[in-house]
Sequence to fold (405 residues):
Amino acid sequence: MTNQPPLLKNHSFLYFFSGNVLSRFGDAFFSVALTWLVFSQNHSIFDTSLISAVSTLTMVLVSPFCGLLTDRSNRKVLLLAAHFINGLAVLAAALVYLSSGELPIWLGLLIVLVLYTTRSLIEPTESSLLPELISKNVFAKAVGYFMASDQLARLLGQGAAGYLLLWLGAGPSVALNALCFFITVLLLLAARLPTFVRKPTSKPPALREDFRSGLHYIWTHPFLIGILISAFFANSAMALVTPFYPALADQVGNGLSTYSLLQMIMTCGGILAGLLTAPIIKKIPAGLLLPLSLSLCGLAFSLILFQLNIITLLVSGFTVSFAAMLFNATLESILVLLVDSQYRGRVNGLSVTIVMFSMPFFILVSGWIGDHIGYRLPFLFAVILLFSASTLLLTNHHVRKIKVT
Fold:
């Protein structure tokens, strides 16, 4: 990290920041639109789980390659290409719906495949670029604000989706959604982003060697091993409950309106966590904040097990989102600040695959259970996994002593 002007005077950061916000708005809008359209066609939790499973499986399979590509390529060009492709994919969905009046499940899955492939490229690229745009002394604060703004963009995107889908209909709404990604491209073109590429050598290392070096880096840093094992359990828990939110919203009443409200409430929890991350990390060591946030998630899911109504659903959603964002923001700070810059892309990509590879299986199984048994059993297993992950972190002295300030 080099000395940089204050955040509000750093024009490149502001363009980068604005593009990220608009992109997240577009992601959130399309996520609500697609999930509700798929669920409303057949009222099947399993159909909803297919969307979640494909999105997760895509990230698991492509993230390591995207991480390597980030370490090898012009990062600004990667971001521009990824956001432009997102715009084309969402526009295609809008055109199909406008022409036929429905969105076939196979097309929805194909678009999810495209969007999450580009998202798997965008995230490590942004993570690698952010430390080059701001000074180290404001990094934790910037990450908190960055994540809070992401959540605010999601809040607005989810709210706009619920409103516009009812007012304009799916086709015109999704067509407007596509504009978000094209405007993001223009904002990134205006930013003076670093174009870091690997220092030239006589011959670039083979992909296998890059994978091996990334895995070796993780293996030789015990704190990373402890964090990734616990994050694997935590993500498996989240996978068990992910398909249920549209159905639970429908069960407590008002369908799309409740689902949109739930998504907005959850986003508010994420916004609050993003804003509070920096001051909390100053008070509580990062190594202790990780298990505490997972325990809070477990308690929130327990509330749904105790009683399901619109109040408990919204309170649980808010708490889960707050705790999960606190966990993710803390984990992001640890990975970015404590991992060598030459390995960031690889470690980020490999970490995503390691902690998420079980999620497609759990999502599909949970969707099947939801259609045939109900929501209680998956929620119970999620609570057990979260408290297990928290215990593993608390008993790992390599993790407990981590500090990022």
About this structure: The chain has a mean pLDDT of 82. Residues 7-192+207-400 form a domain with the Growth Hormone; Chain: A; fold (CATH 1.20.1250.20). DSSP finds 16 helices and no strands in the chain.
